Amino acid sequence: MKAEAVVFENRLQAAFRQVEVPEPREQDVVIEVDYSWISIGTESSFFRGERISGEVPCRPGDPWPFPQVAGYQKVGRAVKVGGAVAHVKPGDRVFATVSRIEGMFFDFGGHVNPAVTDGSQVWKLPETDVPDIAYSGAVLTQVGYNCGIRPPVAPGEIALVVGDGLVGHWAAQTLRARGASVYMLGRREERLRLAEAGGYAIPLNGRLSDPAAALREAGAAASIVVDTVGSLETFRSLQPLMKRDSHLVSAGYLGEHGAVDIQTLREQEITLHAPSGWTKPRMDETIGGIAAGRLRTEPLITHRFAARDAAKAWELIAAPGSPCLGVVLEWGS
């Protein structure tokens, strides 16, 4: 069966081309895709050849992980539903994660149309006024949501989110909805302004000032630090400002540089949370949060490309100082 897909042909080489996908099984849903959302952090790491799998770095001697179909999230219309699938019917608007692929390094991928997807990885979209595109990054939204629900939150407690990317924004939205006073530490003024305008985080620009000094001047002691960028150096600089019995949520990819000295955490009784991946209950909650407006996604979409122009999208994403935050591929244009 033929499909079109965004393929990483080799390191730093993206193409839009025809691929082979398997014939659907009884447990599969075939989806005509409308939008797929690029996960810039994760997909860029694969684009650069840094990973051999989700959390495992590519080391010398490992097989070269190309070609591969990029991505893991999309929305569209179910056009064929296997007899073993009960929660979706043809014509439903759906969200899906990874779909089945043939002839690639990985036997799954995200940016592919039509998408042959196991029914366990398909969610029927709620019947609300929220447009379908708002759900097209729901796995990544779930990562931010997962970061935000991990630590306990008392009203008014200080939570510091390290990173102004998408996961940082959704973590901040979740923590703010739970009653925390949220600071966002980043280096991109335009992204920090989005959080401030959305009312869910106080911006701290790491390019312009010492964030630790700013927090000290504000008399703020953090109960929660969420690292979305994979910088233990930044965490260590902030650790002296963390309260006893506080929480570190580590969500950024650390590769082979993720060693944590547990004894230093013990001195402050800091709890470490290490979220990864997605689960059905969290996806259910995330999709419900988008439908209810608790998780805001559309304001974070900065660029849209026709899927056939995916190589141009990746040129912009990979460029120094790229302006991209939320990047969506449109499959119907």
Automatic annotation (TrEMBL):
Entry similarity comment: Belongs to the zinc-containing alcohol dehydrogenase family.
SUPFAM superfamilies: GroES-like, NAD(P)-binding Rossmann-fold domains
Cofactor(s) required, per the database record: Zn(2+)
Organism annotation: Paenibacillus glycinis
InterPro entries for the chain: ADH-like_C (IPR013149), GroES-like_sf (IPR011032), NAD(P)-bd_dom_sf (IPR036291)
Transmembrane segments: none
Protein's name according to its UniProt entry: Zinc-binding dehydrogenase
UniProt KW keywords: Metal-binding, Oxidoreductase, Zinc
PANTHER family, sorted: D-GULOSIDE 3-DEHYDROGENASE, NAD-DEPENDENT ALCOHOL DEHYDROGENASE
Domain (Alcohol dehydrogenase-like C-terminal): residue spans on this chain: 167-272
